Amino acid sequence: MKKIPLLLCIATLVTLTACNEDGTIKGDQTDMNETSTHDDMDHSGHSSSGDVPEGLQEAEEPRFQVGSDAVIQTDHMEDMNGAQATISGAYDTTVYAISYQPTNGGEKITHHKWVVHEELDYAGAEPLETGDKAIIDTDHMAGMNGTEATIESTEQTTVYMVDFTPVSGGDRIMNHKWVTEDELRTP
Length: 187
Description:
By secondary structure, the chain is mainly beta. The protein has one helix at 6-16, and strands at 35-37, 57-58, 69-72, 84-100, 108-116, 120-121, 133-136, 148-164, 173-180, 184-185. Strands 1, 2, 3, 4, 5, 6, 7, 8, 9 and 10 form a 10-stranded mixed sheet that branches. The protein is globular, with a radius of gyration of 20 Å.
């Protein structure tokens, strides 16, 4: 049997292995057209700098004041429902649940909550309606920025940016965007 140098074996393996942007190995790509709900996904990178989009107006009379505590009553992310949160921002705007195909590949995301009106390119002044299309101009999650979204639902409300520790423990999530007023309760 002929011996193959170890370096040649490693180079061949590296050449044949494709990786996602996060460093994980890509699997069988035959299921790329399947969809996944936002709630089915691991969104551990779903945090931000705290910057808000231009034109987003601070809420004049939010039910939850900046710096106050609240309990999250939704599961946009794993281990979010029931978490104690601190309000880091409150804004009056139109929010949308959207579906989109990530720019970095993978399954289509459906019912992603939430994107605010000010995070959509060329959306105009009036709120969009269910079924409308818009280009996402935010990066709540990898592969989101620059892709076309379909509006699934529209709501005029106060939205909150929150800091929280997942109910199972772990690192504190800072500046999570967005939680609506109906998705929070007083502790």
